[in-house]
Structure formats: C-alpha cells, structure tokens
Amino acid sequence: MNDVLDVALRLLAVFAAFLVLPLVVGQTEHKVMAHMQGRLGPMYAGGFHGWAQLVADGVKFAQKEDVVPAEADRRVFRLAPAVALLPYLLVLLAIPVGPDTVGQVVDAGVFFVLAVMGVGVLGSLMAGWASANKFSLLGGLRTAAQLLSYELPMLLAAASVAMAAGTVSLTGILDAFEWWWLPWQIVGAVVFFVAGLAELQRPPFDMPVADSEIIFGAYTEYTGMRFALFLLAEYAGIVVLCGLTTVLFLGGWHGPLGADGLGWLWTLLKTAVLAFVVIWLRVSYPRMREDQLQRLAWTVLVPLALAQIALTGVVKVVL
Predict the structure, then answer these.
(1) How far apart are CA 177 and CA 180, in angstroms?
(2) Which residues have CB under 8 Å from 2's CB, separation 6+?
(3) Angle at Cα 120 formed by Cα 191 and Cα 277, nearest 5°?
(4) What's this model's pTM, rounded to 2 decimal places?
(5) Which ranges does the record mark as transmembrane (predicted)?
(6) Would you call the peptide bond into 22 cis, given omega within 30 degrees of 0 as the criterion?
(7) Domains: count for the chain
C-alpha cells in the first residue's frame, strides 16, 4: 500500500510541475522580453509589474472561437496538440530532480528521453498535414527537416557524457558526475543545448513558424485553446531541454565545492538560469535562413560532437 501511495505522490508531483513550470517560463518570457526590448504592454495587466499578464492571456485564448477548417482532417487536427504536448510529460517523469526525487527511474534514461522528445515533432506534422493549408504543410515539413538535422548532434553530445559516466541512466550519470568534467565536456553541452533549441523551433531556429514567410507554419489554422496547447508544448520543451542539460552536463542536484545540501533546489536554479538564456537568445539574435540552419548542423555541430566523443574516449583511456 505504501509503495502504491509513493508512486501516486511522485506522479502527482511530476504532473503539478508539468502544469506550473511551463507557465512560469511563459510569464518570465513576457517580462524579460519587455525589459530587453522596452515594451511596456506586458507590464500593465493586473497592476504591479503586470502580474496578471498570464491570466489575461489565458482568458484571451479561452474566449476565442475554436475553428476547424472545412477541408481539414478533423480527428487528426484535434489530436495534434496533445501529441505535441504529452511527450514532454513523459520526459519529465524520467528526469531526476534530487538524490531520491524522480518520477520513474529508467535504466536507459538517455535513450528514453531523446526518443520520446523526437515524438513531439509528430504533433507539428499532424497539424500541418491535417489543416488543408499549404503554408501549414510547409511549416510541418520544415519541422521534420529540422528534427532530422539536429537529432544527430544532440544524440552524439549526450553519448559523450554517457561515455564519461559509463552508463546511459540519468541517475547513474549524476552519481558518477565530477566537477572536473566541465572543462572537457563544455563543447558537448553547447552542442546539446543548441541542437535542442533547434528541435524546439526556438529563435533563431524558428523557420518552421516564420510569420513573414509562411504565416505561422503548421499552427496557422489553430485558434483558442488548441493554439494555447501548442504554446504550452513550446514552454514545456524549454523546461525539459534545460532540465536535461542540467542533469547531463551541469551536475543536476550537485552544488559547487561539494555544497549538495540544497538538493533539488540546485537543479531548479540551474534550469531557471538556462531558461533565461533561451529567452535571451530569442531577443538577441535574428532568424537564420534554412541553408544556414542546415550548414550549422552538418558542418559545425556534428563535427564538434564527434570531436567531443573522441576527446571523451582519450580521457577515459588515459585516466
């Protein structure tokens, strides 16, 4: 009975985090972008510092009409937002937050989280194909092309830290983590983080939703709460990417100089800092062209990831 209760509480905690953390990231993005770009709009709703901006956005989406195009494949069209969102909930289950704080221990955690994250692209493909809109279809195809290009460097970068730890378990990687890994794993961390941004279609890698070219890509025909679910999936993806980068490359719950007493708060703090970097990049860099995107993946990130794996092998043999 105690085991069942323990599992239920862990699942409830993960689900609560899945509902709260993406909304916090969304609210933070409003504020950070407003300060960096001098935009006062998000500072008014609710009074002090625009605290009710997130509530206002939710009310706005709830009030909008749920429109389905006449020629759309209605079942696929309605299912696509859930397919885009739910993989990130499954990934959160496998991310260890503290020494004994994880939704579900997965022995092959690295492979599991990367495989499940790749499923999310099906939501964009389904939305693009089912919308009966050529701009939506182009956006869905661009999303698939981006996934194919950036899945490889992301996997190679994760493989380097798995080699260093001698395990593909996320919990095992954290148990084996040493702070002296940082100088020679930093390249892998950058490759993993940049490739993850491209998979999430975050600026400057947001060609699949380039409003100046294809309106809003695969999501052009979506309105109301269905569109809000796609936005929630984007913010959930940011939480997952930053959490995985923290676990794989930044020591997760391990604090500097052996200060591990904060436990899961270290994981949350590092994830928050990386989420701020994601927002910062959105404000700071213009959108890349499609050819620049592919060139970055195949001529820069893949060679760097392979070099990181080679360096990891040398370090393992020498030490």
Answers:
(1) 9
(2) none
(3) 40
(4) 0.92
(5) 7-26, 79-98, 110-132, 152-174, 180-198, 227-251, 263-283, 295-315
(6) no
(7) 1
